[in-house]
Amino acid sequence: MLEEGYAAVTFRSVATAADVAPGLVQYYFPAVDDLFGAVLRHSTDRLIAELAAAARSERPLRAVWAYASDRRGSALLMEFLALANHRPQVRGILGEGGERVRRALLEAVTARWEADGRDHDGVPAAAALFLLAWIPRMVFLEEALGTLTGHPETIGLVERFLDDVEPLEP
After folding, report:
1. Which listed residue, 83, 118, 124, 148, has the most CB atoms within 10 A of its CB?
2. pLDDT value for 8
């Protein structure tokens, strides 16, 4: 999907990649949207487990920033967003998964922030999570389009915020 786009995902292409007969793929996933849905649900469950563990660390926002700064993962998310634009079933699954991920992260970050007793410059945890999750993705998207103005300054601003609220050195 990353190499050729979501439109290239067919029963035959999936079967070829999995080294099984196309009929077997179609037996378990009667529609390609069912296959996309299964992939999204499984990936969301795995991501929640990984991110929740990282968010309970000493530096949960840095974990979110690192996750969102992964170019491959961001590219795959953008491909699913493009797919969701045309497929209501996938849109619902993607939205539900995004909400589950955000809530799991918010719970972990809020608990960590309450434990450290700081006000984090008055920034609500939900707002920090949203910005840290989407700024890198928008930078990647704009870079792909050739728009670069403001990126270094924005990334620098985020890094200064992280240095303030989650310093690398105690």
Report:
1. 83
2. 94
CATH of the domain at 136: 1.10.357
Q: Is residue 170 part of a domain?
A: no
Q: Which tokens is 122 given?
A: 């008055």
3-class DSSP state of 70: coil
C-alpha span between 116 and 110 (Å, rounded): 10
The sign of the torsion formed by the CA atoms of 47, 50, 53, 58 equals negative
Residue 47 located in a structural domain: yes
Domain range spanning residue 146?
A: 31-165
Residue 87, helix vs strand vs coil: coil
Q: Mean pLDDT per 10-residue run, the chain (170 residues)?
A: 91 96 96 96 92 81 92 93 95 96 89 80 90 96 97 97 87
Does some domain include residue 14? Answer: no
Domain count, the chain: 1
Distance (Å, whole) CA 24 – CA 22: 5
Instruction: Scan for tokens 């539900």, then name that residue.
Output: 96
Contacts of residue 7, defined as CB under 8 A and 6 or more positions apart, other chains included, come to none
Task: Tell me the CB-side half-sphere exposure of residue 56, using CA atoms within 13 A.
Answer: 6
